């Protein structure tokens, strides 16, 4: 049997810097845990534009469709700001998301105790927090028709349409239930069934999928506005939250900030399962290419490293190895190792991107 395959797309700015640390960690798992991957590296974003004149070549797109997981760094930067819209670096990422049909966006909010002081909430409310927001990514009000701005009499009217089909709801619900089975087996679905028909359908379909296919998972429903309140009041009551594109956009950013720095936040976007039951998958840090610190060795590689941990858990069914990696990150943070973005007001000496990689590898050993 061949090894599972990974396509690495470091991209632009700090993307290659943080991805270099992930590559070392992938090698560590091959050497020390006999967990071998077939890794290939290619270009995306501005880096692809510089070479091919497009932010994602057809060849790269084709490989992305074939591999078991794609790991992406970040795209964009000031050098490319004046490019035509059709070849902007972001278009490379959008093409990947669209052609891989990545409808399920996973945004964890995980609080490392050593960083609990970074939270805007009290330490005991966030300490030990580990929740996952599953946001529907390819439908809903950002895509529904009709849309636009038109004139009615003397004034302008702006229109967007929230639209969900049963199958769109069902597939993201399945994705959430599958995740829950790999976690604490609990899903809370959020909508506004009290005021939106699409919310009524959302609630019905999630319940039906649950009853027919995932009766072992504990399911609850909540109105999304209450969900926002509960997230800042008592976030630890949740495990997996599944919600639509618009509510998910807001709730995932809100949940992310419960735990602090942008340099710490991983994400995944999943599509339909292939023949082996592995979902199409793209893993990437939430942050961008950070042009302000590019090339200075200041970037925090943890968001990208934790994105690989998600790949281990959700693409490769290596939950224990994912935990091993997360524990190594937890240990170095507990030991007080900090990149510049994690320095508190009392200062100290930050480590570089590579040094952070060094200590995480040492902690893995
Ligand atoms: P950004 O996330 O790149 O940076 C925001 C701030 O956070 C900056 O001060 C940066 O130095 C800091 N930061 C980000 N990641 C960090 C890390 N790993 N370690 C330490 N500090 C970190 O967002 P910004 O500045 O709005 O965008 C910069 C470029 O990135 C733009 O071209 C934008 O289009 C692109 N971008 C790309 C994304 C992607 O590839 N998914 C997402 C967001 C922005
Ligand atoms: Mg957002």
TrEMBL record:
- Looking at the keywords, is rRNA-binding present? no
Q: Which gene encodes it?
A: leuB
Q: Where is the signal peptide?
A: none
UniProt: NAD(+) binding residues? 77-90, 288-300
Which HAMAP family does the UniProt record give?
Answer: LeuB_type1 (MF_01033)
Q: Where in the cell is it found?
A: Cytoplasm
Keyword field: Amino-acid biosynthesis, Branched-chain amino acid biosynthesis, Cytoplasm, Leucine biosynthesis, Magnesium, Manganese, Metal-binding, NAD, Oxidoreductase
- Which GO molecular function annotation, any one, does this entry have? magnesium ion binding
- Binding-site residues for substrate, renumbered to this chain: 97, 107, 135, 225
Q: Which cofactor does it need?
A: Mn(2+); Mg(2+)
- What does the sequence similarity comment in the record state about its family? Belongs to the isocitrate and isopropylmalate dehydrogenases family. LeuB type 1 subfamily.
Q: What is its EC number?
A: 1.1.1.85
Q: Which GO terms describe its cellular component?
A: cytosol
From the Swiss-Prot or TrEMBL record, give the protein name: 3-isopropylmalate dehydrogenase
**GO biological process: one example:** L-leucine biosynthetic process
Superkingdom of this protein's organism: Bacteria
What do we know about how this protein assembles, alone or with others?
Homodimer.
**Organism classification, top ranks?**
Bacteria, Pseudomonadati, Pseudomonadota, Alphaproteobacteria, Rhodobacterales
Which reactions are catalysed by this chain? (2R,3S)-3-isopropylmalate + NAD(+) = 4-methyl-2-oxopentanoate + CO2 + NADH
């Amino acid at each position: 049997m061949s090894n599972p395959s990974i396509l690495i797309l470091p991209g632009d700015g700090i993307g290659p810097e943080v991805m270099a640390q992930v590559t070392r960690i992938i090698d560590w798992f091959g050497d020390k845990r006999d967990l071998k991957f077939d890794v290939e590296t290619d270009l995306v974003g501005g880096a692809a534009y510089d070479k091919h004149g497009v932010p994602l070549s057809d060849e790269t797109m084709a490989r992305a469709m074939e591999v078991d997981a794609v790991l992406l760094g970040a795209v964009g930067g000031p050098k490319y700001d004046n490019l035509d819209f059709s070849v902007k670096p972001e278009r490379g990422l959008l093409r990947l998301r669209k052609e891989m049909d990545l409808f399920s966006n996973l945004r964890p909010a995980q609080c490392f105790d050593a960083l609990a002081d970074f939270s805007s909430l009290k330490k005991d409310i966030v300490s030990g927090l580990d929740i996952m927001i599953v946001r529907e990514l390819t439908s809903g009000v950002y895509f529904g028709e009709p849309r636009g701005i038109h004139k009615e009499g003397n004034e302008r009217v702006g229109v967007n349409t929230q639209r969900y089909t049963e199958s769109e709801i069902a597939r993201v619900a399945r994705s959430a239930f599958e995740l829950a089975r790999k976690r604490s087996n609990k899903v809370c679905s959020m909508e506004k069934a009290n005021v939106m028909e699409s919310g009524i359908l959302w609630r019905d379909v999630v319940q039906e999928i649950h009853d027919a296919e995932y009766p072992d998972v504990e399911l609850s429903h909540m109105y999304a506005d209450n969900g926002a309140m509960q997230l800042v009041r008592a976030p630890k009551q949740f495990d997996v939250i599944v919600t639509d594109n618009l509510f998910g956009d807001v709730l995932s950013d809100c949940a992310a900030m419960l735990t602090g720095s942008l340099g710490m936040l991983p994400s995944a976007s999943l599509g339909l399962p292939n023949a082996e039951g592995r979902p199409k998958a793209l893993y990437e840090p939430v942050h961008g290419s950070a042009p302000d610190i590019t090339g200075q060795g200041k970037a925090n590689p943890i968001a990208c490293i934790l994105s690989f941990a998600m790949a281990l858990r959700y693409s490769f069914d290596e939950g224990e190895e994912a935990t091993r990696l997360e524990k190594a990150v937890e240990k170095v943070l507990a030991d007080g190792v900090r990149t510049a973005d994690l320095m508190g007001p009392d200062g100290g000496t930050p480590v570089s991107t590579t040094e952070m990689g060094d200590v995480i590898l040492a902690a893995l050993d």
